[in-house]
Please model this.
Amino acid sequence: MLRFPERFLWGTATAAYQVEGAVQEDGRRPSIWDIFSHAPGKTFHGDTGDIACDQYHRLEADLDLLVELGIPAYRFSVAWPRVIPSGRGAINQAGLDYYRYLVDGLLQRGITPLLTLYHWDLPQALQDEGGWTRRDTAQAFTEYAAAVYRALGDRVPFWITLNEPWCSAFVGYLQGRHAPGWRDEAAALTAAHHLLLGHGLAVQALRDLGGKGEIGIVLNLASQVPASDDPADLAATRQVDGNENRFFLDPLFRSSYPEDMVDYYSTMSDFSFIQDGDLSLIAAPLDFLGINYYEQHIVRADPQNRERGAIIDVPPGPRTAGNIGINPSGLTELLIRVKNEYTSLPLYVTENGIALYDYVDPEGQVDDVERIAYFDAHFRAAHAAIEQGVNLHGYFTWSFLDSFEWALGYSVRFGLVSVDYRTQTRIPKQSAHWYREVIRHNALS
Ligand code: FCB
Model:
C-alpha cells in the first residue's frame, strides 16, 4: 500500500466552455472561443462548445454523479461572459446565480469547490478591442474577479485566478491554434504580461475584499529534457524551458522576467509594456500553486525554427490520443524542481490526464485500462515527490467528463465518465471506479 498524506485533497476538474453548453442563455454573450470555434477550419470537424456536455441544464445530475463516484473536490471555472457579458460594466445576475447554485450544490453534497476565474473564455467584446494585448483587459479582469468574489467569497475555499497563462498567451496569440488565433510574437509577449498583471491585480482586489479563501494560480509546466549533450541542444532546452516554465515562474516567485528570455525576445519586443510596480504586483504572495502536468519535452536545437529555435519531440514509448508522450517521472522531477527553485507553498496537481479513443462496448462498459495505468503511474510519481519533501496537498484528474477538447473538438476523450454527446448519457468508465477506490483508501495498492 502506498499511502498519501492525511487530508490529501483528491478531486477532478472541468472548465466552463468545455462542459456547459447553453452559450446563448440567461444573458451570456460570446467569448473568444465561441467566435474561434465557429470560424472555418479552427477546430476538428468544426466542433464547438454550443452544447458540449450540456452541464448548464444537467447540473444536479452531474453533482449527484460526483457523489456517486466518491469525489471529494471539484475544480470548475466560471465563464466571464456569463457574469459580465460585455467584459466590463454591468453584472449579469443570472450568470452569477448559476455559479452560486453550482457552489451551493457542491457544498450541500460535502464536495470542496475550487473555482477558476479564467479558463480561456475571454468575452469577445474585449477581444474586439485587442484582448490581452490591451493593458486595460487586466483591469477588466480584476473587476470581474471582484464581482465573483463578492458573490461567492464566503463559500469557496480555493480561488484560482488564471488557468495556464502560457496557453492563453503563446498558443492563443503566437501559435494561433487556440482563440483568438493570432500569430504575432510581440502580441504574445504583451498578452503574457497583461495576463500576469491581471492575476496580480486580482489577487490584490480579492485580498482587499477580505474573506478566508485561499488564492493561487495554475500553470502548465513541462519537464524539459535535452535530446543530447550537444551544447546547441542544451541551449535550446534552456530556451524552451525559459518560454514555457520560467517566463511565468520567475515573475510570480522572483518578481522578474528571466534575463536570458528578455535577451532572446529583444528583436521582437523591448518589454516596454512593463510599467513601474507591475512586477511587485505580479509577485504578490499566494496561498498555493496549481500545476497542470501533461508533457515531457525532448528538445533538439533547430535554428530554422523561428518561433522556438528548437524542435520538441515526445519521449519514446507509448503516446496518448493527443500524440503526447507519457512520462510520469517528469512529474516527480518537476515538483521537486518547483520546490527547490521557486516556492515552499503548498502545491496541487490541478490537472493531469490522458486523451484516449475510448468507447462504450456492447456490454455498456468503458474499459479504459490505459487511463488506469496512466493515473496509477502518475499518482506514484507524485507520491515519490512527496517522499522527497514536496509539499503536495492534492491531485485533480483531468477530467470529470469527456468534453470539448478545444482545437481537438470531441475527437479525443479525457473523462473518468464517458459522455454520449447525442443523448447526453453519462457512463462512468472503469477508471472512475478505480479512482473511487484510490480515494476511499487514500492509497494505491
Ligand atoms: C489543459 C487545459 C484543459 C484541458 C487539458 C487536456 O491544457 O487546461 O482545459 O484541455 O489541457
